[in-house]
User: What shape does this take?
Amino acid sequence: MQRLTLGSIYAMYFLMLPESSISGQLELINGDIIHGELISKSNDNVLWMSSMLGQLSVRRSSIRNILDEANLDSLTELNTEHYDFSAKPKYAGDMSIAGSSASGNQSRRDWNIDVRLERRAKQLRQIGLFEYENHKIDSTRASDALEVSYAADWFFQDRWFLRNELSFATDEVRAVELRYGLGSALGLQIIDSMNSQLSIESGLMWLSEEQKLGASSDNLTWSWSLYYSLVFWDNITISHRQNVNVAIANIKDSQSDFDVSVRLPLIENLFAELKYEWLYDNQPAPGKGLLDTQFSMGINYSW
Assistant: This one.
């Protein structure tokens, strides 16, 4: 609960920022939007004062459009030959693979595969996630965990969006035969720039879970999520994600998962990834513990 409170305070701080401090928008070809003001421009670069990141120098070829109320007249000379005004959908994604194998006193094999796909078109952002884990110890049968989710974000006002989400999961390690969720949330994209992203969401989600021993539960839950990423130094990326679901009928029934990852550049679009995951369920299946943690190292490819 301490993590949730700190996240809420952080979000409220940004929500109270005056709108006058965000007088313009710099829209990049890749879909990123940087809020701030135009300082100056040259034949090759635009100097932009970001409300979050400070002074930036951005190449003209990377810019799709500029909206700056304080400098409208100076924008008419911008060279538009590099811009894409067709509003074609933009695609992005990444895939991470981590594996380990051990022999001797204990024979163990682990595989983790994560895939994220994103599509942006005008006011709509669509995100698909696929996560798969396989764990095998000695001669026991391998245990699988699988989760697939789809989310659609509709940006109805500048940084505000409405999210609709559907998810499906199964987890043999935690004795979950089937779990699915369906819900809606209100979100705020606090930061959306080349080097940093911060978003928060809160809403309602229906969760249904069937356990291997026959027990089942259906709950309407309050949901909270936060995502933050920062690129610094030589393209090193650190990111944090958290999700919390609390049953409305019984606030003592809750699930939380957090992860922190660091990506280190190897070659273009290829990274080494270190990731720590934390999963807490205060009402797990019989015979299972409340807390699971996992540390993994693998390869990430982004496009």
Notes: The longest strand covers residues 176-192. The chain has two domains: 2-77, 90-302.
